[in-house]
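Residues pack. Consider this:
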Amino acid sequence: MHVRFFTTLLLSATVAAGSVQAQQASDTIAPEKATGTTTAARVETKNYMVAAANPLAAEAGRKVIADGGNAIDAMVAVQTVLGLVEPQSSGLGGGSFLVYYDAAANKITTFDGRETAPMEATPKLFLDETGQPLKFLDAVIGGRSVGTPGTVRLLSDVHKKYGTKPWADLFNPAEKLAKDGFQVSPRLASLIASDGDRLKKYEGARGYFYDADGAPLKAGAVLKNPAYAQTLNTIATKGADAFYTGPIAEAIVKTVREASGNPGVLSLPDLANYRTKEREPVCAKYRALDICGMGPPSSGAVAVGQILGVVENFDIKALGPDNVESWRLIGDAQRLAFADRERYLADPDFMPLPIKGLLTKDYLATRASLLDGDKALAPDAVKAGEPTWDHALLFGRGPALEMPSTSHFVIVDKQGNVLSMTTTIEGGFGSRLMTNGFLLNNELTDFSFKTHDGSLPVANRVEPGKRPRSSMAPTIVMKDGKPLMAIGSPGGSQIIGYVAQALIAYIDWGMPVEKIVAQPHLINRFGTYDIEAGTDAEKFAEPLKAMGYEVKPGEMNSGLHAIEITASGLVGSADRAVKVSLWVSEVSRRDADRYSLLIPVLVTGIQAERVCATKRVFSAQGLELTGFL
């Protein structure tokens, strides 16, 4: 079911809202569950735009910019509110990647706030006493999976470099919401209920997400978080160091190391020594554009660049989105990218990586030659290639667990600064450990559980101080040295396919922003073609089977959203609800309350104070739907 909403401001501005090889278990598990469907809509504005995963978070960012702040200032406000209202996805206890275009310097840079493995961690962290990999959930729940959080340090470091508003002021929206309370969204209520006994295992989360009778919180319940408010106040007044040392750090370490049944090894020195890393962006040429994103330890930019680089060798524009041949090429390009990802990509501070070699035209043309037939690549043909590089190290295949509960937001401010940020605590509700009002990540399960593939070491194995590989793909598209689009998505290892597919639709098929984020998804990482059930993607099921693919219809929990920068202004759209908090009964990929856009709108020459000015209650299928328009 698709639900579409419209509202008109002063009759002159209309705003529509609607919306390979063996891999480890969670690569094939949908990150969080889908809870509703909406259609995407096109939103235009002149000055600035914020797209975030909840209307309250987006409003916090909008107000910061309206009050004279910039995109980096807004980032702090957005993230701290997200950590309160969608705690299952991101927060102070997690990590982040930021891709940032600095308009004054006309330069893109990236910041790595990824969690790190504790110094007491060993490559055998996720092996049992017989040397076999632990079952996924046995590894996740508890302290073993918790890495050193990086988000707070990233916010602080980037704000010190680029921010304009006082640090302390940026925490006010989230602190006030935490004290006064916010309504539990239908999405959050559904996810609490579906997590069952896992979320109840530890007292911190049990006492927060369940009522006195042990029942999960219902949608519409007012939830207050005084502990989170106090944590925010401490960070606001004393700085990020107050998170990484002192009582907050001590509480984090105590929670991790005393987690019953599955304690971890995080220590106070791990927290005190955490550092954000500024890294060069990875930019891949595609057609006449530069697709810039986050390099390792994220595999996102490299894998997206490889998919596009392989596809560039074919006339996919002429084929179009309705030709199954397009999806054969895109699908097998994804499989080849994932084969390289598993062998070569990891934390670049721990080993040399062939990043340039993986993205050269010659290498990708060689990979593309594997697709010259008209059938699916045979499994034994999908293996890592041999890119040119300066080192002779050979790694084994290193599949890694990915079941992230992730959030993403994009911001363009009045000065033309652009950011794309993906932020996460990994699995839904992370480790299920909660302290000081926020959940702790289970990010260490993004490492490969295996230490070796035969006699070869695995690049993404656990090592002390190392950052696990990620699939997050915050992206800024550049044209002639200027930003053209900011885009990204949550979605685990499917993020790579979501972003690549959207870029192909935009660049090759000429689709507008609202169409590229609303496309039905077809993803192929490991040989099985995942197609989005209940959408037009299902028409490709039989043709893909005839090409030799195994096809698996199912939920696809993407959350693409994008802001396009044009000569006349900004155009934004989001995969789920553009600026609506919505619940519907049908289970599909577009979780309607997950994505929100709050923007200034030019109305007969006067900038509207806010788009989300009216709260309305809708009904459909006998359910109450709550929308912010």
In short: Confidence is low (pLDDT under 50) at residues 1-31, 34-38, 577-629. The chain has one domain: 5-127+136-277+401-628. Residues 142 and 261 are 7 Å apart (CA to CA). The first helix runs from residue 55 to 66.
